[in-house]
Amino acid sequence: MAFLDLIERKRDGGTLSPDEIRGFVGEVVAGVLPREQVSAFLMAVLFRGMDESERRTLTLAMRDSGEVLDWSRDPRRPVVDKHSTGGVGDKVSLPLAPLLASLGFRVPMISGRGLGITGGTLDKLESIPGFSTRLPSERIRELVEQDGVAMVGQTERMVPADRILYALRDVTGTVPSRDLITASILSKKLAEGLEALVLDVKCGAAAFMRTRAEATRLAESLEGLANQCGVGTRAFVTRMDQPLGRSAGNWLEVVESVDCLRGKGPADLRELVCCFAGSLLVQTGRATDLAAAIGVASGELDSGRPLLVWNRMLERQGADMDAYFRRLGSDVLAPVVREVRSPASGFVCQVDARRLGEAVRRLGAGRLQAGDEIDPEVGLDRLVQVGDSVCPGDLLARIHARSEQAAEVAMSDIAAAFRIQEAPVDRDPVRLT
Ligand code: URA
Fold it and tell me: Which atom of ligand 1 is nearest to the CA of 183?
């Protein structure tokens, strides 16, 4: 059947059969469909949506377009992972993966690069001198079985359908489709061969999903489909109106993650890390009550053991540990550091994550176009958060830039991201569900 017929049917609000969807994915991977037709099909899906059965078939066909990892069953060491829809300063995966390994899970964490203004776990990890995120699946398996964790990028052989479709979505305005996001995220997670998964669906100014209603619908779509596919999944909706933690930028976020692994660091980061670890304890039957499980995760984080797992993971994945510790010991790496100071006294009532995310990307921490080089050292740290009290001249943020000119350009944008009022401001909870 001509692919044009499928495009027209979807454009007119029709439904595609499982065989038609599987055929589409097969032909995408084989490279036999013209890009303009695939793009038109994606746009039709964006406007018309897919029903539950179409979405499930698309997800599974994408998962099966490449290699799917499989693991020996070991009830004492379930295979788990976490995924976030992405945000500014979202470094949760960095401390979470070693914490999970320290709690006895096996964690084959396959992550992505930054998208738009949202940072990517791989870009953060690659700011560690020598650390390699490109490992073949045999080595990923070895590390996960031996140490409980590997943090890597998708191998060439995994989920090729998503790589091709994502690249087209990125340049055709078809990223924000709930059906396509669900299939894209879950095809990759299901290819890891997981037993349980926790999802962080971000909601707010700097998230794909701006409103709580949209984020809740995406969370339900992801959770429902992943559970149907046999992976015990829980999705949390969390706030992304201000950056998570007090830093945004690749190396600066590694520093904050290590603080978290030392039992310190910002409370909102620690809260999400412990919540997701606690949830996985409950999801895998190792705990019954979420509050108690969060307590267990929190105690483990404070024990120092997850930090040892992190250090061992860095060594195993090729990090130059002397250079890494030297970097950790220096307060500043970027050539230029500027301070943004408060013009008034009062309470911080807004820290605009979208504006800050855009400024951080322009500083060089993210990409404006696919293939752009990342500068690992630039970004922001010592950010204030909503609810903090400030006096005139107090620090609102530090800018780490590669030149005076870049710092100067960033300065006014970054200063405009903060609003201060006289009356005290309540701290918003980071977790919405
Ligand atoms: N992350 C993904 O992996 N895919 C999407 O479509 C959106 C976010």
Answer: 6
